[in-house]
Design goal:
The chain has a single domain, classed as Metallo-dependent phosphatases (Purple Acid Phosphatase, chain A, domain 2). 29% of the residues lie in helices and 16% in strands. It has eight helices and twelve strands.
Length: 270
Protein backbone atom coordinates (compact mmCIF):
# COMPACT_ATOMS: atom_id res chain seq x y z
CA UNK A 1 0.00 0.00 0.00
CA UNK A 2 1.46 3.34 -1.07
CA UNK A 3 0.40 6.90 -1.80
CA UNK A 4 1.70 8.69 -4.88
CA UNK A 5 1.35 12.38 -5.72
CA UNK A 6 1.25 12.96 -9.49
CA UNK A 7 2.06 16.14 -11.43
CA UNK A 8 -0.02 17.99 -14.02
CA UNK A 9 -1.54 15.34 -16.33
CA UNK A 10 -3.25 17.84 -18.67
CA UNK A 11 -5.18 15.27 -20.66
CA UNK A 12 -2.15 13.05 -21.33
CA UNK A 13 -3.95 9.75 -20.76
CA UNK A 14 -1.43 7.42 -22.40
CA UNK A 15 1.41 8.87 -20.35
CA UNK A 16 -0.66 8.67 -17.17
CA UNK A 17 -1.34 4.96 -17.72
CA UNK A 18 2.34 4.42 -18.55
CA UNK A 19 3.33 6.10 -15.27
CA UNK A 20 0.77 4.05 -13.30
CA UNK A 21 2.18 0.89 -14.86
CA UNK A 22 5.72 1.99 -13.97
CA UNK A 23 4.78 2.43 -10.30
CA UNK A 24 2.67 -0.78 -10.37
CA UNK A 25 -0.36 1.19 -9.17
CA UNK A 26 -2.84 -1.14 -7.50
CA UNK A 27 -6.30 0.49 -7.23
CA UNK A 28 -7.23 -1.93 -4.46
CA UNK A 29 -4.42 -0.83 -2.15
CA UNK A 30 -2.73 2.36 -3.35
CA UNK A 31 -3.84 5.98 -3.30
CA UNK A 32 -3.17 8.74 -5.81
CA UNK A 33 -2.98 12.47 -5.27
CA UNK A 34 -3.20 14.83 -8.26
CA UNK A 35 -1.90 18.42 -8.14
CA UNK A 36 -4.64 19.61 -10.51
CA UNK A 37 -4.79 20.52 -14.19
CA UNK A 38 -5.75 16.93 -14.89
CA UNK A 39 -7.21 18.03 -18.24
CA UNK A 40 -6.56 20.41 -21.20
CA UNK A 41 -3.64 20.88 -23.62
CA UNK A 42 -3.15 17.11 -24.07
CA UNK A 43 -5.21 15.05 -26.51
CA UNK A 44 -7.24 12.77 -24.17
CA UNK A 45 -8.90 14.93 -21.53
CA UNK A 46 -12.08 12.85 -21.55
CA UNK A 47 -10.18 9.60 -21.03
CA UNK A 48 -8.27 11.08 -18.08
CA UNK A 49 -11.40 12.46 -16.42
CA UNK A 50 -13.38 9.25 -16.95
CA UNK A 51 -10.55 7.20 -15.52
CA UNK A 52 -10.19 9.38 -12.41
CA UNK A 53 -13.97 9.34 -11.98
CA UNK A 54 -13.90 5.53 -12.10
CA UNK A 55 -11.17 5.28 -9.43
CA UNK A 56 -12.43 8.26 -7.40
CA UNK A 57 -12.34 6.33 -4.12
CA UNK A 58 -8.54 6.05 -4.48
CA UNK A 59 -7.90 9.65 -5.58
CA UNK A 60 -7.42 13.07 -4.09
CA UNK A 61 -7.54 15.84 -6.69
CA UNK A 62 -7.05 19.55 -6.00
CA UNK A 63 -8.39 22.00 -8.56
CA UNK A 64 -6.06 23.70 -11.03
CA UNK A 65 -6.73 26.65 -13.31
CA UNK A 66 -7.48 24.40 -16.30
CA UNK A 67 -9.96 22.33 -14.27
CA UNK A 68 -11.74 25.52 -13.21
CA UNK A 69 -11.72 26.70 -16.82
CA UNK A 70 -13.55 23.54 -17.92
CA UNK A 71 -16.08 24.04 -15.11
CA UNK A 72 -16.62 27.67 -16.16
CA UNK A 73 -16.99 26.81 -19.87
CA UNK A 74 -19.47 24.06 -19.01
CA UNK A 75 -21.39 26.48 -16.77
CA UNK A 76 -21.59 28.89 -19.72
CA UNK A 77 -19.84 31.71 -17.88
CA UNK A 78 -16.80 31.84 -20.16
CA UNK A 79 -15.96 30.63 -23.65
CA UNK A 80 -13.49 28.15 -25.05
CA UNK A 81 -10.02 29.40 -25.92
CA UNK A 82 -8.53 28.36 -29.27
CA UNK A 83 -5.90 26.22 -27.47
CA UNK A 84 -8.43 24.29 -25.35
CA UNK A 85 -8.55 20.55 -26.01
CA UNK A 86 -11.45 19.39 -23.84
CA UNK A 87 -14.27 19.47 -26.39
CA UNK A 88 -14.44 15.68 -25.96
CA UNK A 89 -15.62 16.20 -22.37
CA UNK A 90 -18.18 18.86 -23.31
CA UNK A 91 -19.66 16.58 -25.98
CA UNK A 92 -19.83 13.50 -23.78
CA UNK A 93 -23.16 12.11 -22.50
CA UNK A 94 -21.87 12.14 -18.93
CA UNK A 95 -20.55 15.72 -18.98
CA UNK A 96 -23.02 16.88 -16.29
CA UNK A 97 -21.87 14.29 -13.78
CA UNK A 98 -18.18 14.71 -14.62
CA UNK A 99 -18.22 18.51 -14.24
CA UNK A 100 -20.40 18.43 -11.09
CA UNK A 101 -17.98 15.92 -9.55
CA UNK A 102 -14.91 17.97 -10.50
CA UNK A 103 -16.48 21.19 -9.17
CA UNK A 104 -16.69 19.61 -5.70
CA UNK A 105 -12.96 19.00 -5.50
CA UNK A 106 -10.93 20.99 -2.95
CA UNK A 107 -8.33 23.71 -3.54
CA UNK A 108 -6.13 22.39 -0.76
CA UNK A 109 -5.42 18.98 0.69
CA UNK A 110 -3.47 18.47 3.90
CA UNK A 111 -2.51 15.12 5.32
CA UNK A 112 -1.31 14.80 8.92
CA UNK A 113 0.29 11.42 8.49
CA UNK A 114 2.55 12.67 5.71
CA UNK A 115 2.73 16.24 7.04
CA UNK A 116 2.14 17.27 3.44
CA UNK A 117 0.10 20.07 1.92
CA UNK A 118 -1.01 19.88 -1.72
CA UNK A 119 -2.42 22.71 -3.82
CA UNK A 120 -2.15 23.44 -7.55
CA UNK A 121 0.15 26.50 -7.49
CA UNK A 122 1.70 26.45 -4.02
CA UNK A 123 1.19 28.29 -0.73
CA UNK A 124 0.78 32.07 -0.70
CA UNK A 125 3.57 33.25 1.63
CA UNK A 126 1.41 35.55 3.76
CA UNK A 127 -0.74 32.55 4.81
CA UNK A 128 0.08 29.94 7.40
CA UNK A 129 -1.37 26.43 7.19
CA UNK A 130 -4.50 27.23 9.18
CA UNK A 131 -5.24 30.39 7.21
CA UNK A 132 -4.76 28.54 3.92
CA UNK A 133 -7.09 25.75 5.04
CA UNK A 134 -9.74 28.24 6.15
CA UNK A 135 -9.57 30.27 2.91
CA UNK A 136 -9.66 27.17 0.73
CA UNK A 137 -12.84 26.10 2.52
CA UNK A 138 -14.41 29.51 1.88
CA UNK A 139 -13.95 29.09 -1.87
CA UNK A 140 -14.98 25.44 -1.85
CA UNK A 141 -18.26 26.49 -0.18
CA UNK A 142 -18.87 29.01 -2.99
CA UNK A 143 -18.05 26.50 -5.76
CA UNK A 144 -20.27 23.88 -4.15
CA UNK A 145 -23.07 26.32 -3.35
CA UNK A 146 -26.13 27.15 -5.40
CA UNK A 147 -24.74 30.50 -6.61
CA UNK A 148 -21.52 29.09 -8.03
CA UNK A 149 -22.30 30.42 -11.52
CA UNK A 150 -22.39 34.00 -10.20
CA UNK A 151 -18.85 33.57 -8.95
CA UNK A 152 -17.66 31.78 -12.09
CA UNK A 153 -18.92 34.72 -14.16
CA UNK A 154 -16.43 37.00 -12.33
CA UNK A 155 -13.72 34.38 -11.79
CA UNK A 156 -11.26 35.86 -14.27
CA UNK A 157 -9.14 38.85 -13.40
CA UNK A 158 -5.79 39.71 -11.83
CA UNK A 159 -7.17 42.09 -9.20
CA UNK A 160 -6.94 42.38 -6.29
CA UNK A 161 -3.31 41.26 -6.35
CA UNK A 162 -2.46 41.54 -2.66
CA UNK A 163 -4.05 39.63 0.20
CA UNK A 164 -5.90 41.55 2.87
CA UNK A 165 -8.13 39.83 5.42
CA UNK A 166 -10.59 42.73 4.95
CA UNK A 167 -11.30 41.80 1.32
CA UNK A 168 -14.94 40.85 0.86
CA UNK A 169 -17.25 39.30 -1.71
CA UNK A 170 -16.03 38.03 -5.04
CA UNK A 171 -12.83 40.13 -4.87
CA UNK A 172 -11.87 38.03 -1.87
CA UNK A 173 -12.89 34.78 -3.53
CA UNK A 174 -11.03 35.66 -6.75
CA UNK A 175 -7.82 36.47 -4.89
CA UNK A 176 -7.94 33.17 -3.02
CA UNK A 177 -8.55 31.22 -6.25
CA UNK A 178 -5.71 33.06 -8.01
CA UNK A 179 -3.30 32.37 -5.14
CA UNK A 180 -4.13 28.66 -5.05
CA UNK A 181 -4.34 28.01 -8.79
CA UNK A 182 -2.44 30.67 -10.81
CA UNK A 183 0.36 32.03 -8.58
CA UNK A 184 3.97 31.94 -9.79
CA UNK A 185 5.72 35.27 -9.32
CA UNK A 186 5.25 38.13 -6.91
CA UNK A 187 7.11 41.14 -5.56
CA UNK A 188 8.72 41.17 -2.14
CA UNK A 189 5.51 42.48 -0.53
CA UNK A 190 3.38 39.60 -1.81
CA UNK A 191 1.68 41.34 -4.77
CA UNK A 192 0.88 38.61 -7.31
CA UNK A 193 2.19 39.10 -10.87
CA UNK A 194 -0.07 36.71 -12.74
CA UNK A 195 0.91 37.66 -16.31
CA UNK A 196 4.49 36.34 -16.10
CA UNK A 197 4.61 32.69 -17.15
CA UNK A 198 8.28 32.11 -17.96
CA UNK A 199 11.05 30.57 -15.90
CA UNK A 200 12.91 32.02 -12.94
CA UNK A 201 16.16 32.86 -14.77
CA UNK A 202 14.76 35.53 -17.07
CA UNK A 203 12.14 37.00 -14.76
CA UNK A 204 11.68 40.79 -14.69
CA UNK A 205 13.56 42.58 -11.91
CA UNK A 206 11.61 43.11 -8.73
CA UNK A 207 9.80 39.80 -9.13
CA UNK A 208 10.54 36.50 -7.43
CA UNK A 209 8.95 33.06 -7.20
CA UNK A 210 6.39 32.81 -4.38
CA UNK A 211 8.60 30.35 -2.52
CA UNK A 212 11.47 32.86 -2.19
CA UNK A 213 9.46 34.96 0.25
CA UNK A 214 9.76 34.05 3.94
CA UNK A 215 7.28 31.27 4.68
CA UNK A 216 4.90 31.07 7.64
CA UNK A 217 4.77 27.30 7.25
CA UNK A 218 6.63 24.88 9.51
CA UNK A 219 9.73 23.91 7.53
CA UNK A 220 9.01 20.21 8.06
CA UNK A 221 5.70 20.46 6.22
CA UNK A 222 6.03 19.35 2.62
CA UNK A 223 4.41 21.53 -0.05
CA UNK A 224 3.37 19.49 -3.10
CA UNK A 225 2.34 21.53 -6.13
CA UNK A 226 2.45 21.83 -9.91
CA UNK A 227 1.37 24.54 -12.40
CA UNK A 228 4.84 25.74 -13.35
CA UNK A 229 6.44 23.59 -16.03
CA UNK A 230 8.89 26.38 -16.95
CA UNK A 231 10.32 26.36 -13.43
CA UNK A 232 12.71 23.45 -13.06
CA UNK A 233 13.51 22.53 -9.46
CA UNK A 234 15.11 19.44 -7.96
CA UNK A 235 12.57 17.19 -6.19
CA UNK A 236 12.63 17.95 -3.35
CA UNK A 237 13.95 21.50 -3.17
CA UNK A 238 14.00 22.21 0.59
CA UNK A 239 10.41 21.29 1.59
CA UNK A 240 9.02 21.99 -1.92
CA UNK A 241 7.95 19.30 -4.37
CA UNK A 242 7.22 20.86 -7.75
CA UNK A 243 5.77 17.94 -9.70
CA UNK A 244 4.86 19.72 -12.97
CA UNK A 245 7.46 18.32 -15.35
CA UNK A 246 5.79 19.44 -18.59
CA UNK A 247 4.08 16.25 -19.75
CA UNK A 248 1.77 18.17 -22.11
CA UNK A 249 4.84 19.86 -23.63
CA UNK A 250 6.51 16.54 -24.51
CA UNK A 251 8.71 16.34 -21.40
CA UNK A 252 7.86 14.06 -18.46
CA UNK A 253 5.14 13.00 -16.04
CA UNK A 254 6.26 12.61 -12.44
CA UNK A 255 5.01 10.73 -9.38
CA UNK A 256 6.25 11.12 -5.82
CA UNK A 257 5.82 8.27 -3.33
CA UNK A 258 4.94 10.00 -0.09
CA UNK A 259 6.12 7.23 2.22
CA UNK A 260 9.78 7.52 1.22
CA UNK A 261 10.09 10.55 -1.13
CA UNK A 262 11.02 8.29 -4.05
CA UNK A 263 10.45 10.02 -7.41
CA UNK A 264 9.26 8.16 -10.53
CA UNK A 265 9.41 9.84 -13.91
CA UNK A 266 8.32 8.68 -17.34
CA UNK A 267 8.89 10.36 -20.68
CA UNK A 268 5.78 11.87 -22.23
CA UNK A 269 4.12 9.72 -24.89
CA UNK A 270 2.26 12.72 -26.32
MN1 LIG B 1 -1.96 25.28 -13.95
Amino acid sequence: MATYAIGDVQGCYKTLRYLLKTISFDPKHDHLWFVGDVINRGMDSLAVLNYLYDIQDRCVIVLGNHDLHLIAVFAGTTSLNPEDTFMDILEHDNVDALCAWLRKKPLLHYDNQFNALMTHAGLYPLWNLNTAKRLAKEVEAVLQGKDYKSFLSVLYGNEPNLWNENLTGYNRTRFIVNAFTRMRMMNSNGHLELDYKGGIEDCPSGLMPWFKLPSLLDHNTRIIFGHWAQCVLPIPYQNLYLLDTGCAWGRQLTALRLEDDKVFTVESLE
